[in-house]
Design brief:
The protein is an alpha/beta fold and about 240 residues long. It contains eight helices and seven strands; from the N terminus they run E-H-E-H-E-H-E-H-E-H-H-E-H-H-E. Helix content is about 45%, strand content about 15%. Helix 3 runs parallel beside helix 4. Bound molecules: NADP nicotinamide-adenine-dinucleotide phosphate. The site of NADP nicotinamide-adenine-dinucleotide phosphate has 32 residues, from helix 1 and helix 4.
Amino acid sequence: MTDLSGRVALVTGGTRGIGLATARALVEAGATVVLTGRDEARAKEAAASVGASGLALDVTDAKAVSSLVRGVAKEHGKLDIVVANAGIMEDALLGMIKEDLVDTTLSTNVAGTLHTVQAAARAMMRKKSGAIVVLASIVGEHGSAGQTVYAASKAAVANIARSAAKELGRSGIRVNAVAPGVIETDLTAGLSEDAKAENAGKTPLGRLGRPEEVAKAIRFLVSDEASFITGQVLGIDGGLVL
Ligand SMILES: NC(=O)c1ccc[n+]([C@@H]2O[C@H](COP(=O)([O-])OP(=O)(O)OC[C@H]3O[C@@H](n4cnc5c(N)ncnc54)[C@H](OP(=O)(O)O)[C@@H]3O)[C@@H](O)[C@H]2O)c1
């Protein structure tokens, strides 16, 4: 099993779904993990359930992200791993897209990821080592009807990973993205049974994904097993886009 003992990790949006599964997977590999969510009580409760610690953070607030990341690095003496996972998804057909949907999606998924990567890079630069993973999506590469805003935001996230990887590689910091397919979490809970069955039917592995399956891929990417991998967008979709 991947050994992350002695590593300090931060997972944003860790209160449920992929973020919580990632926090659990990192704790199981021996890392000291801090997870965040917008509500402090919810973050602390989720953290306690996996042996991590929990803090309140809204990733749309650049100053708050910067100060939290600095605080975690100061408290633990370093920061080795950051998973910029916090994200939202709201569907709207092109003609129905409202300005506030654009604002909320871009400020959470794009600016929130950017703030987190920026703060992580600053904290990791001192030690000249670190690993960052951001959450893209298959729709960022392939598009999706009714998800133009979300898909655009996830294309941006993939390019945050690629660009940051180019910029930070010489400082010993690796940056990768994962691009999940349809994973069973609160984010996709609103899909109708028909839509879920259709997606599962189109997937070569014949089913939807589980948060733990994304978490294990993230754990690999932040570990030394992936020491020569950076700037990649790893699909975790059961073959859905083939
Ligand atoms: N599920 C999928 O099929 C799928 C597919 C592709 C990509 N993804 C991506 O994977 C990531 C996690 O998705 P998920 O399915 O696990 O979603 P989820 O179950 O809805 O969880 C989303 C997490 O993000 C946090 N969050 C949302 N807005 C935030 C903000 N402004 N500041 C801080 N935290 C915020 C939530 O925390 P609180 O609500 O507690 O604040 C929660 O912990 C997202 O980036 C998503 O786009 C998911």
